[in-house]
Amino acid sequence: MTTIAERVAAGAAFLDEHDPDWWKRIDLASLNLRSTCHCVLGQLYPDPDDPDESFETATLQLGLSGAVIEASGFDLPFPEIAEGHYHDLTAEWKRVITARREAAS
């Protein structure tokens, strides 16, 4: 089992390949990986017709399977959901994005 930091690093690398500068478009104040609208993918690829479906729409657009979604830190596997690790996942995405922004300035 990989750590949350390793999974988020994999997700950031995936986004770097498919959507350079993605980290510039994330609103850190509203970032919440538990929300389908305010998670990383929901913010990057919002569904204007149904904001609650933004996460699902994004995964379809990017061709992401459930296993890849979890391995890339876009969501958590069930045991971690049950243990309430969304706070940790959100915090790690914020850390990665903040570090990129600081490095770019």
Structure description:
The chain is an all-alpha fold. It has helices at 4-18, 40-44, 54-62, 66-71, 78-82, 86-104.
Gross geometry: globular
Low-confidence parts lasting 5 or more residues at pLDDT below 50?
none
Rg to the nearest angstrom? Answer: 13 Å
| Beta content | under 5%
Mean pLDDT: 92
> Whole-Å distance between the termini?
34 Å
Set down the secondary structure blueprint.
Layout: H1 4-18, H2 40-44, H3 54-62, H4 66-71, H5 78-82, H6 86-104
Features:
globular, 105 residues, mainly alpha
Briefly characterize the structure.
With about 100 residues, the protein is mainly alpha-helical. The protein has six helices and no strands.
